[in-house]
Amino acid sequence: MASAAAISNADKDALLKRIEELEDDKAKLQAELKGDDLRVRGVNGRVRTDWTKEEIQAVYEKPLIDLVFDAAMIHRLYFSSREIMRSTLISYKSGGCSENCGYCSQSQHHKTFVKPTPAMQIEEVLEAARRAKAAGSARFCMGSAWRSVGKKHAFKRILELVKEINGMGMEVCTTLGMLTPEQAKQLKEAGLTAYNHNLDTSREYYPKVVTTRSYDDRLDTVKNVREAGISVCCGGIVGLGEEEDDRVGLLHQLATLTEHPESVPINALVPVAGTPLGDKLIAEGKAPQWDEMVRMIATARIVMPRSMVRLSAGRMEFPMAAQGLMFMAGANSIFTGDKLLTTPNPAFSEDDRMFEILGLVGKAPHTAPLKSPYSADDDVADAADAARAAQPGPRFVDIQVNKSSSKLETSL
Ligand code: SF4
Predict the structure, then answer these.
(1) Which among 242, 294, 288, 290 has a CA at the least distance from the CA of 268?
(2) Mutation test residue for ligand 1: of 105, 107, 117, 147, the one with most atoms within 8 Å of CB
(3) CATH says 53-362 is which class?
(4) pLDDT of 18-31, one tens digit each?
(5) Dihedral pair phi/psi, residue 277, rounded to 5°
(6) Residue of 39, 86, 226, 233 marked active site
(7) Taking the CB of residue 373, how many other CB atoms lie within 10 A of it?
(8) How far is the CA of 107 from the centre of ligand 1 (A)?
(9) In 3-state terms, what secondary structure has residue 82?
(10) What is the structure's pLDDT at 373?
């Protein structure tokens, strides 16, 4: 649409000057947008395992408002925006672990409130699973404070539990420490859906977190789980004293595995007195902030678009509005129940209220992500890019001065 109006000669010079300024602004904005194009290159919802660390860093460093927007769009390519899986995690065997993870209340290397306890009775676990199912949980997870699944008898009980809980129609997940290929195979045969084994942080920062087993030990277990055909649940923790570079490093490690983990838990450290990293965090008052979690979740969502991103430990510290932003940014699972292993977690009723207020619904067990809008080898226009282009963005008013007629002509 164009319009024309007579202007006085006196205003003409001022207008020309103003137009020059606007042209400058326009050039600057266009230069920025070019940068923007670079920033979003590759961020289109395609599942890639060839991310460079620099690419992930560029995603991670986006202005938070853009990052959440991009992640929210990509999330909607693969998942319903309202579906959040409720999972329940119990501590099947607490304390006395021989590993020295610097954040963990269950390590025998640290003096914490957790005392070693024997494994739960089978019926006790099954009752907890029934309660979790009745409260809307789609996945039931059992954690054991073990370096690895050592004793045959203990493993047999786990296999029995997996079979029983699988029979209840819930997804079953365990986290039992390091696994051999043979143990992974047996868990698969018993009906295990997923196995959790976190990398915790970047390879570089890892030795500051734990020294009793290596990063590669962890990757070996992840590989054994994958090869047995069990879903991989593997993520990390924010708040270990790591730099942002380590957070990007962790996401890079996960996003460049041969296959992305089906589940990526993002935890905020809940500091426990008596643990080296918990004490450090308390002394320095550097608890993970909501925006750090949003950034981490959104980046995970973008670089691993078909994975469940699980907002895990530390939820108690974040108000509902902040959690809402995390769901917006692509988190689609939470742990419910008033305890997460040994640390506090919101009660079932509080989460019910949050679901009602935010309009969330529970995600059913065994529901796969939506089909990719991209086929393996197509060059179909990027759906997310198209959606992005349709959004209101910066617009330029094209202003021309008709110098001969002293007319100012504008068009949108
Ligand atoms: S292996 Fe698990 S239970 Fe053991 S110290 Fe590390 S985090 Fe804690």
Answers:
(1) 288
(2) 107
(3) alpha beta
(4) 888 888 776 766 66
(5) -75, -30
(6) 233
(7) 16
(8) 6
(9) coil
(10) 66
